Amino acid sequence: MIEINNISKRIDGQEILNDISFGVNDSEIMVLLGSSGCGKTTLLKIIAGLLKQDAGDVVINGKVINDLPPQKRNVGFVFQDYALFPHKNIFENIAFGLKIKKIHENEIKKRVYEIMEILEITHLKDKKIPQLSGGQKQRVALARALVINPDVLLLDEPLSALDPILREKLREELKTILKNLGVTGIYVTHDLTEAMLLGDNVAVMNKGEIQQIGKPDEIFYHPKNEFVANFVGVKNILKGNIKELKEDVATIEVVNEDLKSPFTIKVKKYPIFERKRNVSLCIHPEDITLNRTKKDENAIKGKIINIIPNGSVLKVVVDIGGLEVYATTTRHLLKYGINDDVWVSFSRDAPHPMCGKKCRSPDQEALCKCKVSKNPIEEIGC
Q1: Residue 270, C-beta contacts closer than 8 angstroms, at least 6 positions apart
Q2: Which helix or strand (DSSP H or E) is residue 151 part of?
Q3: What is the Cα–Cα distance from 178 to 155, expressed in whole angstroms?
Q4: What's 200's DSSP letter?
Q5: Could you list the pLDDT tens digit for every one of the 382 residues in the chain?
Q6: Which residues lie below 8 Å from residue 197, measured CB to CB, with a gap of 6+?
Q7: What is the layout of strands, in order, in the sheet containing 299-310?
Q8: Stretch (H or E) spanning 127
Q9: Regarding the domain delimited by 227-378, which CATH topology (the fold level of the hierarchy) does it fall under?
Q10: Does the structural domain 2-226 have CATH classification 3.90.550.10?
Q11: Residue 143 belongs to what H/E stretch?
């Protein structure tokens, strides 16, 4: 297990990390998700001992390792550019960390061949790095990091240099390898798909701070704030004032800054509505339907201003009185074109307060922490 406790770091007077804390259990992968410059790689370097933090502790298996040099931390590191030795062959590259640790030659040979077999690169053992493809280099870098049997494996965007088809293939393989070996790891990426696939937990970072930590579904379906929502692609954010509360429904006046005039919607009642009169709601684009006529109670008239191909689906952008909302559909189902007038509709259950709680992911209603209770004392707030 690894614990990151209140880590802070400034470089040239600029705050890079601010009071970062989280833990990773044995055999689990924590993904640090964020854009370039948010402090992800700096944190990995601190854990590996390549940088010294200004404050806080790195704890591995109950031991504070702040003062240990990199070679004594038993941390594996897969760098973004792989950092392989071009003058050495594959076997020598993989064996490098074991030789630094002064492991006996017979044990080195045994462990190198074992990891090469697992990663299916034994046939490459005599080749030099320039002779390898991108995917092969990635496997060699991973083998070199794993062969030392690290307490923690650090991976800094290891797939980012690969082409999209190879990246998709290797991320599936990487997940299988890490799980089969029971690796405890911290994986850095700016790619949402990688984070959702590889992470047991995901920490979304921005400007040196963690915005939200949770299971992949929690991050995607229940963003805690507007930054997280935008980062995971939930662009439909309605800001409103609570006008009326009934037993299981709330009436909310939507007053986003871009709106020419407010409109009201009815949504499922959540405990947070009892305590907070101004709320932000997010709606996933797949929960929005488009119709020619007004069919639902939550229906707002708008005009289609763009249709964006996005893989197997289409992203439809609709202007509703100055506010842009996004819906997803398929080519087969889309019956409208740009400049067509449509009604944007959604159910009462579609909007969810940005509270970071598990209330809306598929098949998780029984675990809802925002469930409505007739006794306010029993309600567990968002």
Answers
A1: 250, 352, 353, 355, 359, 370, 372, 382
A2: none
A3: 11
A4: S
A5: 999 999 999 999 999 999 999 999 999 999 999 999 999 999 999 999 999 999 999 999 999 999 999 989 999 999 988 889 999 999 999 999 999 889 999 999 999 999 999 999 999 999 999 999 988 998 999 999 999 999 999 999 988 878 888 888 888 888 999 999 999 999 999 999 999 999 999 999 999 999 999 999 999 888 989 899 989 888 899 999 999 998 889 999 999 999 999 999 999 988 888 776 889 999 999 999 999 999 889 999 999 999 999 878 999 999 999 999 999 999 888 889 999 999 999 999 999 888 766 554 444 444 444 443 333 323 233 3
A6: 171, 172, 175
A7: 289-291, 341-345, 299-310, 313-320, 323-329
A8: none
A9: OB fold (Dihydrolipoamide Acetyltransferase, E2P) (2.40.50)
A10: no
A11: helix 134-146
Which residues, at least 6 apart from 99, have a Cβ–Cβ distance to it below 8 Å?
108
Q: Round to whole Å and give the CA distance between 127 and 112.
A: 15
C-beta separation of 201 from 215 below 8 A:
yes
The DSSP bridge pattern shows strands 313-320 and 75-78 to be unpaired
CB 84 within 8 A of CB 143: no
CA angle 363, 379, 211 (to 5 degrees): 65
Nearest Cα to 352, choosing from 382, 373, 327, 378? 382
CB 20 within 8 A of CB 32: no
CA distance linking residue 8 with residue 156, whole number of Å: 19
Q: If we measure between CA atoms, which residue out of 179, 4, 185 comes closest to residue 78?
A: 185
Residues 2 and 186: beta-carbon distance below 8 Å: yes
Cβ-based neighbours of 57, under 8 Å, separated by 6 or more: 3, 5, 6, 7, 64, 66
To 5 degrees, how large is the angle CA 187–CA 199–CA 36? 45
d(CA 89, CA 125): 7
Type of residue numbered 136: Q
Annotated domain spans of the chain: 2-226, 227-378
DSSP letter, residue 378: G
